[in-house]
Design a protein that fits this description.
By secondary structure, the chain is mainly α. It has two domains: about 1-100, NAD(P)-binding Rossmann-like Domain (Rossmann fold), CATH 3.40.50; about 100-159, no CATH class. The chain has helices at about 25-35, 60-80, 105-120, 130-140, and strands at about 40-45, 85-90. The longest helix has 22 residues, at about 60-80. The chain binds NADP nicotinamide-adenine-dinucleotide phosphate (NAP).
Length: about 160
């Protein structure tokens, strides 16, 4: 990576005083102006619409879509022109219509849930941050991978 600088983009200003709201195109454009030439962008920002479908309100769903779909497109619009031809975007996203809320299970419930997944999935374990980081590094160092969705899930959908 040419610049060798990681900047955490968040709604709260970081130590470099860079503030980005993925729902605010002007703040993304301002980021581009400030950063100059870029090599790689990894976007994980997301406002999740959590809860049971009957309890979700329209604004929360729109906000989630805004951060997971439109925001990353705006990042591409304003940051891609600043990239070298070997630059890359890695975008985290995710929409789940039904998912167990692990946080509500309690400690024993969580342990049982993770043990069950580990026993059933082909990887026979729970994923770690390193699993995700390795996939990101693979994606941003590959010069021939493009437009793909990587599923880093231990083969869970196969079970
Ligand atoms: N964690 C998982 O197991 C998992 C699995 C599959 C897919 N994913 C996907 O990966 C992505 C990241 O997940 P995560 O677990 O890291 O999410 P997370 O813990 O909820 O973190 C989301 C981050 O996005 C920031 N954010 C929220 N609204 C923003 C906005 N308008 N502009 C800029 N930043 C904003 C949040 O900042 P604040 O702290 O200021 O709110 C927070 O730092 C999501 O799209 C998720 O669906 C995650």
């Amino acid at each position: 990576m040419r610049n060798g600088v990681f900047i955490t983009l968040n709604r709260a200003a970081d130590r470099d005083n860079i503030t980005v709201d993925l729902t605010d195109e002007a703040s993304i454009a301002a980021l581009g102006e400030r950063l100059g030439p870029l090599d790689h962008v990894v976007s994980t920002g997301s406002a999740r619409a959590r809860g049971r479908v009957p309890d979700l309100d329209r604004d929360a769903i729109r906000l989630s879509f805004d951060t997971k779909v439109i925001g990353p497109l705006m990042l591409a619009k304003h940051l891609a022109p600043r990239m070298s031809t070997s630059g890359s975007f890695v975008i985290f996203s995710g929409v789940a219509a039904a998912k167990i809320a692990v946080g509500t299970l309690g400690e024993q419930g969580k342990a049982d849930y993770f043990a069950d997944i580990s026993a059933r999935n082909p990887a026979r374990r729970i994923g770690t941050p390193d699993d995700i980081a390795q996939a990101v590094i693979f994606a941003l160092t590959s010069t021939f991978l493009t437009g793909q969705t990587l599923h880093i899930d231990g083969g869970e959908p196969l079970t």
